[in-house]
Design brief:
Elements lengths: L1 E7 L3 E7 L5 E8 L4 H21 L4 E8 L2 E2 L6 E3 L10 H9 L3 E5 H12 L7 E7 L3 E7 L2 E2 L36 H13 L8 H5 L6 H9 L3 H25 L3 E5 L10 H11 L10 E4 L6 H16 L2
Parallel strand pairs: 1-4, 4-7, 8-11, 11-12
Antiparallel strand pairs: 1-2, 2-3, 5-6, 8-9, 9-10
Helix pairs in contact: 1-2, 3-9, 4-6, 4-7, 6-7, 7-8
């Protein structure tokens, strides 16, 4: 039997057929619409297309898992809010179950990605695993003995909004100095903008700067890989903050594996070694305790789809 995973993000919804081994067989992608009922239609359409493909090949789909970039209520049946999604207090599981005629499960996208990396990726076999997803902001997941830890109200762990710099850069969450303001794709662009605005010399980044738009994390990563000195300074600062963040995560959770995922992890060769060095220097009791293995994610942009599908398989199997 196959399961379908759907990763519903602010820009696109990506669906895929996944087998029992966690192998992604085929995918379909559609833009994320701005109206709730339109999003229902898009998700249902993607799933129905994949179910049809499976049946044409003589195979059946047993369940559907949704991973969403938003707040999921504690019993994982509704999406209460998503900054870039139109769903507000939507009973998504009930709606999709009735529409598709299949069991449907719901999970936060970072938790789904963490589950996928634990089952078939970089954290396979870990007793305590943390996923840190570096993208526009920071997403995170914590798995203890293979089970996702959600906290009392379903929103843990919110690592991106730990304050590391009192009165630091303002964050959209309303606080200042959050980790994600110093250690995310957005933070790379902000750091470069600050240096350039202060009159620092720059070379490879000049074309990006002169287009009149804020520099992006992708701009900085490409420039750093090309040897741009300013971009490398920004990446070094980023690595330092990531290392401090990892030390804090280790002090609180004591994981045996930390997986670095998200879009920024594609450039891990630029910063991960330095981040791990700082992590080892900043951790409480350094030199007298074991450090977590810090690994880049291996499932990339497919982790949410795979994790949602595996979650659906596991939860539906437990009901039988």
């Amino acid at each position: 039997m196959l399961t379908v995973g759907v990763d519903v993000g602010g820009t696109t919804a990506k669906a895929g057929l996944v087998d029992a081994d966690g192998t992604l067989l085929t995918t379909r992608i559609a833009p994320t619409p701005r109206a709730p009922r339109d999003l229902d239609d898009i998700v249902a359409g993607l799933v129905e297309h994949l179910v049809g493909e499976a049946r044409a090949d003589g195979r059946e789909v047993a369940a559907v898992g949704l991973a969403v970039a938003g707040f999921v209520d504690p019993d994982r049946r509704a999406v209460s809010f998503g900054a870039h999604l139109p769903w507000r207090d939507e009973p998504v599981v009930a709606t999709m179950t009735e529409r598709l005629g299949l069991p449907v499960t719901l999970e936060h996208d970072a938790n789904a990605a963490g589950l996928a990396e634990h089952r078939v990726g970089a954290a396979a076999g870990a007793r305590v695993a943390v996923l840190v997803a570096l993208g526009t902001g920071i997403g995170a997941a914590l798995l203890v003995e293979g089970t996702v830890f959600r906290g009392a109200f379903g929103v843990a762990p919110e690592l991106g909004h730990l304050v590391l710099v009192p009165d630091g850069r303002p964050c959209p969450c309303g606080k200042r100095g959050c980790l994600e303001r110093y250690c995310s794709g957005t933070a790379l662009g902000t750091g470069a903008d600050e240096l350039v605005s202060a009159g620092e010399d720059f070379t490879t980044l000049r074309a990006a700067w002169e287009r009149g738009l804020p520099l992006t994390g992708r701009d900085v990563a490409h420039a750093a890989a090309a040897g741009d000195a300013l971009a490398r300074r920004v990446v070094a600062d980023f690595a330092g903050w990531l290392g401090r963040g990892l030390a804090l995560v280790a002090d609180v959770f004591d994981p045996d594996v930390v997986v670095i995922g998200g879009e920024v992890s594609a450039s891990a060769e630029l910063f991960l070694d330095d981040a791990v060095r700082v992590y080892g220097e900043e951790i409480t009791g350094r030199g007298h305790r074991r450090l977590a293995k810090v690994r880049p994610a291996v499932l990339g942009g497919d982790a949410g789809v795979i994790g949602a599908a595996l979650d659906a398989r596991e939860r539906c199997a437990s009901r039988t």
